[in-house]
């Protein structure tokens, strides 16, 4: 995960022009690196797509989809693979604290599916969940944004977990480059992404 988070110092060194800051109207593509508790031998990597659009000024809808995978050679000499697909959609409200700070709150639904193959047998599992999330976004300078957030997820079978998120984005006109770190109860993920605000 050190490779992914290396972009953060670069964001802090940049001094380019002012962008449309703290926009909730955007499309975003990136790569995620994920590691699960109990499956630390795997470091899943794959693409992720996100989008958000506002309506009635302070409301927004958002969506996210990603597919991650990794493969290793097991002690039995066979290839072991781990595949994950994960999507989430939600609707939220934006609170404008001041011109440099916004807080949002959202309700979300999602689905998580995993496929583990050790070369001999295959195990598959999936689960739906719903969640409540809140984030704070702050413009440190005209084009550097820091953000943080919390999410409470409720899974099938009365399971729940919390997630903590930290992020940094460098804005240049309508384009942005950023990095996120998210720590869940049983896994953690780092991502780098490019965003276009419209």
TrEMBL record:
Signal peptide range in chain numbering: 1-19
Protein name: Outer membrane beta-barrel protein
Domain of life: Bacteria
Taxon lineage: Bacteria, Pseudomonadati, Pseudomonadota, Gammaproteobacteria, Alteromonadales
Keywords: Signal
